[in-house]
């Protein structure tokens, strides 16, 4: 493994505090003192590497994401803190690792967890630094936002501080529950022809963000968050997006291998029961489900393009940082899974791209191992706002924005459940489960992680080096939250 500098937490805090001195923006500008940059914060739910940025599937069509990426820097080896919406987003919004907070699964409570509840959440951080903070759609995990967080740190939220996703009402469905009514969340299909994207919750979120940016009345500096829900299931989009991916042209995932799990320890199956692939295959829905994911991703791509274009046409364009991220990846059958909730590359790899006026150069990529935990300290550094003390565990990515080859951590960590860890370096993925069983993959010749090398004595030193990256503290599971029952579809 490449020998790179590891940054300890105390050193990291010192670096972060140092980095929070006068930012590039904190200077006289047309007579305005200390003009801080605005932040456009775009979240996409369950978007894996099936796009033109990360090139995980050549079938994907994402011209707007590709164009946005070409304007700034793409982190091609970025991973989530946890491969599930709730703990991934809690980690992003607090800057605290799941292994430090005990927040591991979707039902882990945020506000009943004293470590997270006492943290300065990212919107609160910006509000406390005199930013106008607004948002729409899914930025936090829905349970957390709607029932627990309730708009904490936001001056305005669309549709409201107790409802993150705009209503699904008004959508008309053509699909007839393709798995035969088995699960309403495992549903996909086109909307009826008289329904446009404006009726889709994500269309409403994008339209709200667009109107804010073009309305020209945002108080500066601002933090504007737009949380896009697709391609999270259920996958609904207008017919025109499905038409871009004819069913007869759909290819099954390149990374799928029959019997791939034969060399994998049994512990992986304990993390999340996942019967979907079996059901999808037995009902002849594998290709239609992939078509729906690609179609919804294409719709998301249009909506991201709409928001970015609005920014470019606004008076804020020259002084606004764009950060776009997805909360984790997604399996489409690889390793026998349909969904997230794993410590393999398919579920941990995420999109993370930045356009930072005056800092990023167009067309940069960086393959250093980074994490969504790094978003909070990076935003603190880029805006020149002092980060909360003794809270943030990520690293300042502006170092890599200036030099993508800069010395960096050897690896980054994803956690799913108590003491289950996936560690990714530039070359290897190491997984260790709570029971001590292991996996090791070499990405130089095994992109799809087919061959588990953990029992090969030749790799003993590699495993030892990867184990050094594991957190030293493993917080027991935090309290879980009982989600109130909701009716309606989906
Ligand atoms: Ca998600
Ligand atoms: Ca295998």
List keywords for this structure.
Alkaline Phosphatase, subunit A; alpha/beta; binds calcium ion; four-stranded antiparallel β-sheet; eight-stranded mixed β-sheet
List the helices and strands and how they pair.
Blueprint: H1 9-19, E1 38-44, H2 63-70, E2 73-75, E3 78-79, H3 85-94, H4 98-101, H5 114-117, H6 122-128, E4 132-137, H7 142-149, E5 156-158, E6 188-191, H8 201-215, E7 222-228, E8 235-238, H9 239-243, H10 268-271, H11 276-282, H12 286-312, E9 320-326, E10 331-332, E11 338-339, H13 345-348, E12 352-355, E13 364-366, E14 370-371, H14 375-383, H15 398-402, E15 411-415, E16 421-425, E17 428-432, E18 438-442, H16 460-467
Parallel strand pairs: 1-7, 1-9, 2-13, 3-14, 4-5, 4-7, 6-8
Antiparallel strand pairs: 2-12, 9-12, 10-11, 15-16, 16-17, 17-18
Helix pairs in contact: 2-12, 8-12
Bound molecules: calcium ion (2 copies).
One calcium ion binds at residues 260, 263, 450, 452.
